[in-house]
Amino acid sequence: MSDIIEKLLGAMLRLEPRQKLRKTDNEMTNTAGEGLPAFSETDLKPEAVEMTTVQHPDGRMSQYPPTEKWDDWVEWDGKLWPQKVARRYTLVPTACFNCESACGLLAYVDKTTFEIKKFEGNPVHPGSRGRNCAKGPATHNQIYDPERILYPLKRVGERGAGQWQRITWEQALTEIAEKMRKSRQKRRDGIMYHVGRPGEDGYTNRVISAWGVDGHNSHTNICSSGARIGYYLWAGFDRPSPDHAHARTILLISSHLETGHYFNPHAQRIIEAKMKGAKIITFDPRLSNTASMSDVWLPTWPGSETWVLLAIAKYLIDNNLYDREFVERWVNWQETLSHAEEMTDNTDLLKRIEAASDNLTFDLFHELLQDLYADFTFERAAEESQVPVERIKEAAEYVSWSKGQLATHTWRSASIGNLGGWQVARTLYFLNVLTGSVGTKGGTSGNSWNKFVPTPFKTPPAFNAWNELHLPIEWPLAHYEMSFLLPHFLKEERGDIDVYFSRVYNPMWINPDGFMWLEALQDEEKIKCHVALTPTWNESAWFADYVLPMGHAGERHDLMSQETHAGQWVAFRQPVRRVALERAGKPVRFTYEANPGEVWEENEWWIELSTRMDPNGDLGIRQWFESPYRKGEIITVAEYYQWIFENSIPGLPDAAEKEGLTPLEYMRKYGVYEVVAENYEPYEKAVSNGKASKDGLIYSADKKVTGIDISGDAKAGFNTPSRKLEFYSPTMAQWGWTEKEYIVPYPLKSHVHPDNIDITQGEMLLLPNFRLPTLIHTRSANAKWLYEISHKNPIWMSPTDAQRLSVQTGDLVRVETEIGYFVDKVWITEGIKPGVIAMSHHLGRWRLQDNQGGNRGASNVVTLDETGKGQYKLNVLKGATAWESSDPDTSRIWWEEVGVHQNLTHGVHPDPISGAHCWLQKAVNVRKAQASEKYGDVWVDTEKSMQIYHEWLAKTRPATQKSPDGLRRPLWLKRPLKPVVEAYKVPTNLEVDTASLEPQGGD
Amino acid sequence: MDGKQKALAYSRAYDLFAQLYTHGLTDDLRPILDSLSLLEQDSTSDSEQLAAQHYQLFGRNVFPYESIFLGTEGLLGGEVTESVAAFYHEVGFSATSHENADHIGVEFSLMAFLCGAESDALADKVPHHVQRMRHLQRRFLDEHLLLWLASCVKAVQEQGQGIYTDIATQSLALVLEHRQQLGDDLMLPTSVFALADVPNLLTDEKTSLRDIAHYLLTPAYTGFFLSSDDIKRLGAKFRVPHGFGNRQQILINLLRTAADYDLFEAVFEEFSIIAKNWLQYYENLMLPQAIKTPWMARLSHSITTLSDLRQTAIEANTEI
Known about the structure:
The complex is a heterodimer of chains A (1003) and B (320).
Chain A: H1 3-13, E1 52-55, E2 61-64, E3 73-76, E4 86-95, E5 104-110, E6 116-121, H2 139-143, E7 153-155, E8 164-166, H3 169-186, E9 191-195, H4 203-211, E10 216-217, H5 225-235, E11 240-242, E12 249-253, H6 263-275, E13 279-283, H7 289-292, E14 296-298, H8 305-318, H9 324-330, H10 333-338, H11 347-355, H12 362-372, H13 378-385, H14 389-400, E15 406-409, H15 413-417, H16 422-434, E16 444-446, H17 447-450, H18 486-491, E17 499-503, H19 507-510, H20 514-522, E18 530-533, E19 546-548, E20 558-560, E21 568-573, H21 576-583, H22 602-613, H23 637-647, H24 652-658, H25 663-670, E22 672-676, E23 691-692, E24 697-699, E25 705-710, E26 713-715, H26 730-734, H27 740-743, E27 764-770, H28 784-789, E28 795-797, H29 799-805, E29 812-816, E30 820-828, E31 836-840, E32 846-847, E33 860-868, E34 871-878, E35 921-923, E36 925-928, E37 938-941, H30 942-953, H31 959-962, H32 981-984
Parallel strand pairs in A: 9-10, 9-17, 12-13, 12-15, 13-14, 17-18, 18-19, 27-31, 28-30, 32-33
Antiparallel strand pairs in A: 1-2, 3-4, 4-5, 5-6, 7-8, 7-19, 11-16, 20-21, 21-22, 23-24, 24-25, 25-26, 27-35, 29-30, 29-36, 30-37, 33-34, 34-37
Helix pairs in contact in A: 3-22, 4-22, 5-16, 8-13, 8-14, 8-16, 24-25
Chain B: H1 3-23, H2 30-36, H3 47-59, H4 66-70, H5 79-91, H6 104-124, H7 127-159, H8 163-182, H9 209-216, H10 219-222, H11 228-238, H12 247-260, H13 264-284, H14 289-319
Helix pairs in contact in B: 1-6, 1-8, 6-7, 7-8, 9-12, 11-12, 13-14
C-alpha cells in the first residue's frame, strides 16, 4: 500500500462519519432539471368509474377523475398509445402561478417514482372551473426545465461576472439573516422586498411587518396603478370585478378576452354571456382577438378613451337613460353641488345652486352634469379618438341597453399607458354608476367584495417607519410604491439599501429604462446585498449576490383568492411532490427535500430566515414565527395553514367535518374552498352595529365608521370617506389638484396626444405594452411549449405608414425614442391604427454568457458595452439555438428570433397622481434600418433618461407643498403595508428640492 | 488496522471523495485534506474560487458520468446509467444525491456504502455477509467504476484545475489500491470488457462534420476526452474561430472554419498528438490489464483513424 493511501485510510478512522448511509427500498426518483421524468407501470387497470362531468354553460363538456379517486387513480398512459400501459397516480390539487388568476391545477404524481406526469384543470375550483389556458399545463415545462436553478448560489468575484458558487441553504440563511439583523438594528428602512408577481395573499406582508420595517416594494406602478387610483377615488376599491357571465353589455378597454387580468376565468364567462346574447364593445388601437370577437370595435387613438366614454355618458344623461334612482341614492351629488364653482362657469346654474344650498335637489345635479359634459358630443369624441362616429353611437346604444348589467374592465392598457390614464378607469366606472351596474348581477363589483383573504393566527402591529425610496414626498397619491424609479432615486442619493430581495421580479428587464437598473444593480454602495429569489435565471439575477431557487406552481405553499366573478373562493397552492410523499407516509420537514434539487419555497424560507434574524427574540421578530400549537417553538408551514383553515375561513371546518376530514386535510384534498357562491350589492347590506351621526355616517362604539344612513336605513355603503360613490373627489381637491379635470371624471391630455406626435416629421406613437396570450413577462421563458407558440415581437405597422417609410414585412426598422433606439423587424398589418406602432413586451430576453444566465431557446446572446459616459449599447450575437440536454426537445428548437428588448429604450414617465409609469412612448423617429444596424440593436443614453425623469418629476405636487393635514398621504388611500399614523407625518426636516422639479438639461 | 477498521477507513475515504466530487472542496472538508497533506497543490486559495473552479470543471467541462465515457450517445440517462441504477437496486443502495446514478460522486458513495456494510458485517461477525460485500465491491469496480475512472481522471488532469487535479489523481490511487486489496480476478461484464464499435467514418459517404465531431467527442470511440475548454484552447492555438454553443457545436464550428482556412490538417495533427498523449498515460498506469488493453487499443486505432482523416482531407484539398 502506498504511503499516501495508508495515511489517508488511517486518518479516515479518526473522523466522525459524515452521515449514516442507509438502505432504502423505494424507487423514488427526482429528475426535474436534470432528466426527464420516469413513471412506473402498474398491473392495475383503469376502473370504469363515473367521471366528474362539468357541463360548461357555453355548451362544452369536460370530464375529470372523481374527487374520491384522487388519492389513487389509474389511467392509461396516453403517450404510449396504442400500447396499453397503465400508470398509477395520486392527484394533488394546486394553483397555477403563471399569471395572477390562480386557476386550479391538478397534478398527476406517480405513486412510485413521485415524478409529475402532467398538470390538468381542477374541476372544483370555482374561478377556473376545470379549465386552463396554455400557461397552466406548461407548468410541467418549468418543473422539468433543464436550465432551471436547482441549488442556492452565491456570487464569486465581481458582481455580474457570472461566477457562482453552490452553497447550502444554511449558509444562505445564516449570512443573509446576519445582514438583515445588522440593518434592522440601526434602521427600519434598510431592507427592501421587491416583488413582481406576489402569487399569494398576505403571507409575505405579514413577514415584513414582523421585521418592523417599511420594506415592501411592488411592481404595481408599471402595471395597474392608473386603474387602481381611478377606481379607488370612486368607491374605495382598487380593482374591478365584472360579472361577465350575467352581463347584457360588456365594455372592455383592451384585449381582456385573450390576455387580460384573470384572463382564463374571465374569457370563459365573457363567451358565456355572448352565447346568451350579450353585446361586446372593445376599445383597442389593435385588432386583437378580443376586438375581432366584439360587436363594436373602437380603435381609439391612445389617450382618447375618456372622450368616447364621456360622450356615452352625455348620451345617457341628456336622454335620461341613466339609473336616476341609483345615482341619487349612492352618488355624493350634494357634495358635488356644493363645489360646483370648481367645475363650471355657468353663472346662472351656480346662482341657482347657491340659492338652493339648504335644499339641494337632484335636478340641479342633473343640470350640472349636462353643463359639465356639454362638449362631449359624439362628433367631438369621434374627432378626438379618430373613430367613425357611427361606432361610438352604436356603443352608446349598447351601454344604455345594459339596464344595470354592464360589465366593464380596464386594468393596464390605456389606464397605465397615458399621462392621466387613471381618468380612464374613472370615466369608465362612471358608466357603471350611470347605468346602476355597480355590484349588480351582470354589473361590475369591487375586488374587495369578491376576494376573500383570511387572517393568520397572529398579526404583527404596524411599523413606525417610512422608506423614502418607496413613496417619496412628491407622489402623495401614488398607488403604490414608485418602484420603477428606484434607480433614479438611488442616483439622486435619496438613500441606499442594505438587503434587497427581488422576488419573481426581473427589474432590469421588465421596467422602463433598464440600463438605469443595470447601473443600480452593479452599485454595491447603493444596493449592498441583492438576493434574487427566482426559479430561473434572468437578466437581473445575473447581478445578484445570492440566487436562491424558489419553486414554481406545484413546488410551494400559498393561499390565493381573486375576484374572478361575483363570488369568493380561496385556493391553496401546494408543493405536489411533498403532498404526494406525505400521502405515502414519507414525512417531509422542509419542502426543498421533496422538490427538485434543493428548490425551496418562500413560506418556509421566510420563517427560517426571520428566526435566524432574531434568534433570541430581542428584536421582537421571533415571536411572530412561533407556533400557535407548540408554545415557544418555531411554526411549521403546515401549522400556519392549519390555523387559518381551522379559524379564518367561514364554513370550511364544517365542510371538512362532513367528510370526516380536518380543515387542513380538506384543503390538501381539494385545493380550494368556495366561501361565497354569489355576492351582489354588498353596499346595500344593513348595518346594525353603530349609530347615525349628524353627518349621515354610522359610527361604532369605538368611533369607527361602519356605514351610512340612506333614507333612514343604516347601510354598509362604500369604503370612501363619505361612504358614497364619490363623483366629486374631495381627496383630489384637498391635495392640491383642484382643477375640474382632476376632481371629477374628465379627460386629461395624454403625453401622446396627437398634438404631441408629428407624423410628418417621422414621429409616431409606440404602443409597447400588449400581452401575448401564451406568454407572461419573464416567467414563461422556460416553458418550451409556450415559446414554441410565441417567441418574437415584431413591430406592428399599418400599410399607410409602411408605404410612407418604404418598408415591407420583415424589413428592419429603427425606432428612436426619447432616450435611445432599438432595431426590430416590422409586420405590416391593417390591424393597427395608422400613426401607431405596437410591440408586445414579453420578448427580447438576453444573456451575457452563452451557457449561463438565460434559456438558450428563449434568449439572445448579447454583448453589452458602455460606449460613453452613461451610454450603453446592446448587440445581439445570436438568437435561440438548439442544444443537447436531458430533454430531447431542446435539440429540436427550430426558431432563432426571440424578440427585441424595447423597454431598455423607454424613458420613465411617472404620472404625477397615480405614480404609474405611462408606458406609451413617443417614437421621435421611425425609419428603415441602415445596413450597419442589426436586429436587436439597442442603444440608450442614461443622461437623457435622467432628463426625462426630471421633466416628469416637475409635474408633481409634493406633500410638503399641498398636504392639507401635515401628512404625507391621505390615510384612507391604500398602501400594501400601512405604517402607524405617526410615520405619515411629513418630517420637518424634509424639504423638496424645488430645483429638481424644474425640467433639466436639453436644448 | 484490522479488517473491520480497514473497511471502515475505505468507506470513509470513498465518502470523502464522493463529497469532493459532488460539492467540491468546501470549507468543512478543507481541514481534513490539509491535515492529510494529500494535495500537492496549495489548498489555501479562496474557498469561493474553489467552488467556482469546481463548477467550471465538472459543471461545464468534464462531465463525470460513466455514460459520457462509456456510452456512445453523449447523453445522460441512457443504457449505461440504467445499468448502474440496476446495480444500486440490486444491492439496495439509495443515493442521497440528486445527481444521476452514474455520476462519479454517486459511484463513490456506493463504494462507501458497500465498504461500510462490510465493516458492519465484520463487527457483527457475519462472514458470509462480509464475503458478499467484498464480492459486490469487486463487481462494481470491475463492471463500472474502474472501467472509466482512469479516463475521467486524465480528462480532469488535462484541465489544469490545481487542487481538483490532485483530488482526482488521489481518488484513482485509492481505487486502484482498494482493488488490489480485494484480490481475485477481474469480473468484467460480458466476460471481457470491450468498448463500443467505432463507426467507419471514412467509408461512409454520408459522413458529415457533425458525425466527425460526435466521433471526436465520444471517448468510447476515440479513447480520449475533449472538453469545451480543450476545444477552445485548440481554437486559440491555431487562431481558428469556434463560435458559441455546446461542445459539439463549437467543435463543428472549429472543424468547419479549420477547413475554410486550410488548417484541417494541422488541427487533425493536434488530435493525433492528444491521442498519443493519452496512450502514453495508459502505458504508465497501474491499471488492471483487462481494462487497460481495450483503452490502449482504441487509442492506437484513433491515431490511425485521425491520420487517415487527415490524409483524406489533404487529398480532398489536392483534388480541389
